[in-house]
Backbone:
């Protein structure tokens, strides 16, 4: 089967969410100034920001507590000097993405589903990112590669689910994204379309009527897996964005990463699950840290993670307790920890 483009190109015009993204903080000192913090009191690492550029939306920054250098949202985005430490076991490809490349931007790790790297761009650069060293420049994700990816999916009838990831698939503009999901929906054996995205959390204005229309108008079951790590990330603007997705009959799940000094305590994890469910999102995964180079300062010991999950089960209904998992390169599925 060949992918057939059906949508005509339209002239580019920057939308409100794109303008907001373009106005993001791109220098740590500017964010610290906004938060009324003294850069001399924080062990920043300019060299780390060069290797993995700094990017934080103003919407996300507005949820940080001013004059608090230990704010859990701030900790997720600040490039610190500890990123330069060489920690054994931490690598540039911790989950084996490169060995799973199957043509175009397709990662084919697990039976029945593939992941499509749609872009190298994100709306925020989280310092614990497991793809912070992914060589996107060696795997261009333009229209020709997109066509190659769709032809790969169409050639394998065992593929029933396509996962859009990146980077973040929701930083694609509406026209490009609509073309892509129409191409996927054209493949008869694909039943589900899943998005892995942090955009509804860090750039909720991106959840536009046009996007919602595009997601609700295709035959596929659409699942959006958001990425919230802390209850302070969920404010009224995020609640509104999630409501619009629910109105489009999108299934909403959350995957979080267990991060030291961010969410590694029972009260925070419980509040996160409660806040997610109130917003119509089911807590799905709690990931142990993927050991990407420069992220060791975020690691939480597995024994601590197990204890926290046991405590969550003792204090919450079962449907609010996420699965504790670790992704290991080469394994046929995520490894269940607790």
Residues:
């Amino acid at each position: 089967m060949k992918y057939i483009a059906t949508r005509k190109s339209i002239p580019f015009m920057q939308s409100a969410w794109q303008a907001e993204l373009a106005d993001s903080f791109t220098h740590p000192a500017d964010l610290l100034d906004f938060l009324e913090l003294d850069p001399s009191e924080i062990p920043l690492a300019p060299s780390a920001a060069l290797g993995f550029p700094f990017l934080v939306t103003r919407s996300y920054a507005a949820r940080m507590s001013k004059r608090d250098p230990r704010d859990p949202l701030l900790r997720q985005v600040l490039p610190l000097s500890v990123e330069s430490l060489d920690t054994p076991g931490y690598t540039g490809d911790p989950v084996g993405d490169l060995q799973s490349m199957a043509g175009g931007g397709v990662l084919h790790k697990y039976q029945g589903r593939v992941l499509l790297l749609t872009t190298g761009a994100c709306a925020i650069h989280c310092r614990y990112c497991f793809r912070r060293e992914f060589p996107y420049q060696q795997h261009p994700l333009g229209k020709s590669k997109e066509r190659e990816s769709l032809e790969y999916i169409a050639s394998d009838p065992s593929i029933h689910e396509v996962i859009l990831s990146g980077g973040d698939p929701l930083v694609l503009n509406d026209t490009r994204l609509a073309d892509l999901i129409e191409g996927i929906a054209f493949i008869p054996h694909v039943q589900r379309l899943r998005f892995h995205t942090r955009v509804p959390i860090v750039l909720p204005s991106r959840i536009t009527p046009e996007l919602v229309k595009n997601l609700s108008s295709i035959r596929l079951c659409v699942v959006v897996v958001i990425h919230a790590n802390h209850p302070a990330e969920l404010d009224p603007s995020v609640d509104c964005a999630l409501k619009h997705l629910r109105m489009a009959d999108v299934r909403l799940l959350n995957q979080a990463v267990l991060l030291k000094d961010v969410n590694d305590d029972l009260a925070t994890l419980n509040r996160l699950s409660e806040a997610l469910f109130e917003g119509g999102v089911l807590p799905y995964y709690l990931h142990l840290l993927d050991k990407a180079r420069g992220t060791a300062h975020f690691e939480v010991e597995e024994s601590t993670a197990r204890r926290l999950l046991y405590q969550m089960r003792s204090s919450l209904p079962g449907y609010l307790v996420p699965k504790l998992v670790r992704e290991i390169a080469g394994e046929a599925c995520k490894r269940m920890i607790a």
Confidence is low (pLDDT under 50) at residues 1-12. The two ends are 42 Å apart (CA to CA).
